[in-house]
Amino acid sequence: MDENLKKKVLRKIHYGLFVATSSSGKDTASGTINWLTQVSFKPPAVAVAIKKDSFLHKVISESGKFAINIVGKGQKDMAQTFFKGYSVENGKLGGYEIFYGSTGCPIIKASASAFECEVLNKIDFGGDHDVFIGKVVDVHACQDLESLGMMETGWYYGG
Which of 19, 57, 143, 150 has the greatest number of C-beta atoms within 10 Å? Predict the structure, then answer.
């Protein structure tokens, strides 16, 4: 397979930008992600890919829950902040004010919106990410913003 053509083709897949968070009670983790899709209406469920060697993966695996904070247009800086994971300090995560949702996961008040999930399954298909299937158990309307797409940023994480 032509590597350059593979990258060009796979980078045409539309991705949003999200900040995933999780809390085990002992540890809190966060990170910018973009491999996410809804996979079921009933029950409402999503699939999200999380890098295996990340602290976020460890905390989601331990807690069995995660939240997805949707990054809005004009919030590229928020997505960039969470390229490096953060823990909660002084009621903030990466400098952003948070509240805790019904699962105990941090919700970023400035995000476009957010939802919380309980892990239904984790799929290890042999790649560098695992796929978590999460049942949506709560939703939050934070800011009334349209979501930011990866292509609008000039960033690439695929291919």
Answer: 19
